[in-house]
Design goal:
Layout lengths: L13 H18 L7 H8 L3 H7 L3 H15 L12 H18 L1 H8 L11 H20 L6 H22 L6 H26 L9
Helix pairs in contact: 1-2, 1-4, 1-6, 4-6, 4-7, 5-6, 5-9, 6-8, 7-8, 8-9
């Protein structure tokens, strides 16, 4: 007579269960914008009950913050600061590397950009600022030799990260751009920022603001 008993589920440690739920959230966030995701979707993907999910995470903002911490920590490192290349080649190489990173971390990118690049939940603002400033520091080191640059330079580079975010949104979320177009836009955008925008801001700044910060 065949054994019809239901196999017992293996018990996971709290750390393993938490990781399982985060992995499920990564899958779900990669498939749809943040606003469309429900905790029930994530619980279903993880194979756990909604109540068990809530035992580990209070809500989807907390799940998203956990995913974004790793994204923000490692994102700036993708911008290489040791490349001995002419500016055009350096910008192209780093843009390609960062787009690889975005594509590989599609869940975090989709959750970050799904509502538009400027409509993130408030708990993410500090993490996003960390990511933005890390990118600015590394771009500044590449092209000015130091992260201690004038405020006009930093403001121009911060604005460039906004262009990058909009381009990635139109690639991953709306599909209005493909990856090759995003690379062309971001490479050309950074070259123009360095060659044209930074000098223009410097020239337009009050005299006391030109000495650097």
């Amino acid at each position: 007579m065949p054994d019809t008993t239901t196999p017992k589920r293996s018990r996971l440690s709290p750390e393993a269960r938490r990781a399982q739920i985060l992995d499920a959230a990564r899958v779900v966030f990669a498939q749809q914008p943040y606003s469309s995701v429900s905790l029930s979707d994530i619980a279903r993907e993880a194979g756990v009950s909604r109540s068990l999910l809530n035992h580990y995470f209070e809500g989807k903002v907390e799940l998203l913050v956990e995913l974004m911490r790793e994204y923000a920590e490692h994102g700036p490192e993708v911008v290489q600061t040791g490349l001995d290349l002419p500016m055009e080649e350096m910008v192209t190489s780093n843009a390609s590397s960062f787009l690889d990173f975005v594509e590989h971390n599609r869940a975090a990118a989709m959750a970050l950009l799904g509502q538009g690049p400027f409509a993130q939940p408030a708990p993410l603002q500090e993490i996003l600022e960390q990511l933005r400033e890390g990118m600015v520091d590394r771009i500044a080191v590449n092209h000015f030799g130091t992260a201690d640059v004038p405020e006009t330079v930093r403001l121009a580079l911060r604005a460039y990260t906004g262009l990058f975010a909009v381009a990635c949104h139109d690639w991953l979320v709306t599909g209005r751009l493909d990856r090759a177009q995003v690379q062309a836009l971001t490479v050309t955008g950074l070259q123009m920022t360095l060659r044209d925008v930074v000098p223009a801001l410097e020239a337009a700044a009050p005299t006391g603001a030109r000495s650097g910060a």
